[in-house]
Amino acid sequence: MLHDPNHLYIFDTTLRDGEQVPGCQLTTIEKIEIAKDLERLGVDIIEAGFPVSSPGDFQSVVELSKAVDDVIICALTRANKNDIDVAADALKYANRPRIHTGIGSSDMHIQYKFNSTREEILERAVAAVKHAKSYVEDVEFYAEDAGRADLAYLAQMIEAVIAAGATVVNIPDTNGYCLPDQYGAKIKYLTEHVKNIDQAIISAHCHNDLGLATANSIAAVQNGARQVECTINGIGERAGNTSLEEVAMILKVHNQSFGNLSSNIDSTMFTYISRKVSDMMNMPVQPNKAIVGRNAFAHSSGIHQDGFLKHRENYEIIRPEDVGLEEADIILTARSGRHALKHHLERLGYHLDKETLANTYERFLIIADAKKDINDEDLLSLVK
Ligand code: KIV
Ligand code: ZN
């Protein structure tokens, strides 16, 4: 498979790592609906599920393969023959199938999860990739818990799986353990020490246990990764995965720093798809969540509101329209100034002279101190 080195591949795992969250399970019909939205959003790869895990997951991968034409459909497996056989069967209708197989790479996992040795795990990794390759051209290998793996051993494993046919090598920080500079250095080390690394693309797969998933993914891209694995709203195991909308907007805002890497993502769909995933998965988005939280474009303190109303770029590095919101919110609270009150009154058609505005503002503060939310009715009661 040929990769474009100037493109950042967005691998969405909302329907696999995201859907593993308790209470977030979706029906196949709901998954198809989200997959079609993800296709319109412009993701490059959709991880559709883990077919061997249940008949329902198997069926979802089958149906998503039929429903989606242009995007790569990926199925997860462990490094064993049966998982891979089942995944290949589930992918049989996919136009662009990918098998994502892998095994633990840290000594912790090797010893306490597999009760095995580095040598034996390496053999299993290579055998799994070879077996997957007998079914599909596009094979991604994940070195689980790479965030805590010994670097030299990780490099040895990655070199061996690329030689066995892996076209994408995923370096998961499964436990969200790394600091950005550590994770970035890990990726750089692999680009410098894996002899055949130019035959594969490096993928970042980060978890958010320390709130660093996005920062770590970005550090990976700065050090040579060209695929990022992420989910809508950052949902996923425990504290979640890297948030797709955060990575895409960082790339957009700082495009030059990333050498103008291309991406197919249509950010104007973010608000829509975030709300849809949140509703369908019954997983509320925290109000202060970057990009898609309710308050991400809401200005509430007087100093910010005044500065924003003078020139929006004083307090706006992303235009709300760019993420599919109509406009920024100027929230009226007891911390708001006259400028914000004037703005809202004018929106309602009331243009007050300076003296009337000053007088109205005094009465506004009394209401605002007593109430959390000031609505249009409150404003009208002030001016009528
Ligand atoms: O976090 C992880 O290591 C994973 C792998 C299965 C890719 O989700
Ligand atoms: Zn994961």
Automatic annotation (TrEMBL):
Pathway: Amino-acid biosynthesis; L-leucine biosynthesis; L-leucine from 3-methyl-2-oxobutanoate: step 1/4. PROSITE patterns: AIPM_HOMOCIT_SYNTH_1, AIPM_HOMOCIT_SYNTH_2, PYR_CT. Pfam families: HCS_D2, HMGL-like. One of its GO terms (biological process) is L-leucine biosynthetic process. One of its GO terms (molecular function) is 2-isopropylmalate synthase activity. Residues 8-271 form the Pyruvate carboxyltransferase domain. It comes from the Bacteria. Its EC number is 2.3.3.13. The keyword Protease does not apply. InterPro entries: 2-IPM_HCS-like, AIPM/Hcit_synth_CS, Aldolase_TIM, LeuA/HCS_post-cat, PYR_CT. Keywords: Acyltransferase, Amino-acid biosynthesis, Branched-chain amino acid biosynthesis, Leucine biosynthesis, Manganese, Transferase. NCBIfam families: PRK00915.1-3 (NF002086). Belongs to the alpha-IPM synthase/homocitrate synthase family. LeuA type 1 subfamily. This is 2-isopropylmalate synthase. It comes from Sphingobacterium olei.
